[in-house]
């Protein structure tokens, strides 16, 4: 109960700046009263409840689950199964991400306008699905690379710098229409489920391997998950375009 109260307090603290900023600009700068105040109040209350339950659920559910799975795979001693799980986790949590579905749909519409694909629902659906699969595969690949980095003890900064160098190179060759979508795809992949699960996986794995520091070695997987979609989506644009 005490932990739940602390979580509620944290949710109020996190929401307060947003509410204050919106209220300030609405009342002081625009000089207008807040419309539908009762509905907005109910909405804020629902957000507060949802955020509290979500954070508490992460603490008692997803974080321990991710760490337990990482520990179990490390003790099992099977690199193949660990990497297979890492790929499946990245792919599965990304392919059904609502933000990615929305962006893929918008990208398909933009591709029609740009003349990259033919008009029609079938062409749009095929392009959007291909884009979603590309991003999901790229995130799965990113988690595999990140997990293998933890196992081998490689410095994360060199891999990240090399990855962004690849992004720069790909930018010169990718179709102009796909570049913005590729850059944005790195953001929509880090969903509310992917981030806690992947973070828990990294920390749990680093804690299970002798000689690894959970603080310095366990983090960085999310950076890979944000990086690889940019490269893969630009490659997808080069193939489809």
Structural class by SSE content: mainly alpha
Number of domains: 2
Q: How many strands appear in the DSSP assignment?
A: 0
Discrete helix count: 10
Average pLDDT over all residues: 82
- From the spread of the alpha carbons, the general shape counts as flat
Low-confidence stretches: none
State the helicity in percent bands: over 70%
Order of helices and strands: HHHHHHHHHH
**Percentage beta strand:** under 5%
Distance between the termini: 56 Å
Query: Sheet bearing the most strands, described?
Result: none
Short structural description:
By secondary structure, this protein is mainly alpha-helical.
Structural account:
The protein is mostly helical. It has 2 domains: 1-61, no CATH class; 78-240, no CATH class. The protein has 10 helices and no strands. It has helices at 2-29, 37-76, 79-95, 98-113, 121-152, 156-173, 176-188, 194-208, 214-217, 221-240. Helix 3 packs antiparallel against helix 5. The longest helix has 40 residues, at 37-76. The radius of gyration is 21 Å and the shape is flat.
């Amino acid at each position: 109960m005490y932990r739940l109260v602390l979580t509620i307090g944290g949710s109020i603290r996190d929401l307060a700046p947003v509410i204050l900023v919106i209220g300030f600009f609405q009342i002081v700068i625009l000089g207008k009263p807040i419309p539908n105040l009762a509905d907005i109040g109910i909405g804020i209350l629902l957000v507060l409840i949802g955020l509290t339950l979500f954070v508490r659920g992460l603490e008692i559910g997803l974080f321990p689950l991710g760490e337990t799975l990482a520990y179990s795979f490390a003790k099992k001693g099977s690199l193949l199964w660990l990497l297979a799980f890492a790929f499946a986790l990245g792919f599965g949590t990304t392919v059904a991400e609502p933000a990615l579905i929305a962006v893929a749909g918008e990208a398909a519409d933009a591709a029609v306008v740009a003349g990259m694909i033919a008009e029609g629902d079938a062409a749009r659906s095929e392009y959007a699905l291909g884009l979603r699969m590309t991003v999901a595969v790229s995130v799965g690949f990113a988690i595999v690379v990140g997990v293998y980095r933890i196992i081998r003890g490689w410095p994360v900064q060199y891999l990240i710098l090399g990855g962004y160098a690849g992004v720069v190179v790909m930018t010169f060759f990718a179709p102009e229409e796909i570049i913005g979508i590729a850059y944005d795809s790195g953001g929509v992949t880090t969903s509310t489920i992917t981030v806690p699960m992947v973070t828990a996986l990294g920390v749990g794995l680093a804690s299970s391997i002798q000689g690894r520091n959970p603080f310095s070695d366990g983090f960085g997987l999310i950076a890979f998950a944000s990086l690889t979609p940019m490269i893969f989506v630009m490659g997808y644009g080069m193939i489809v375009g």
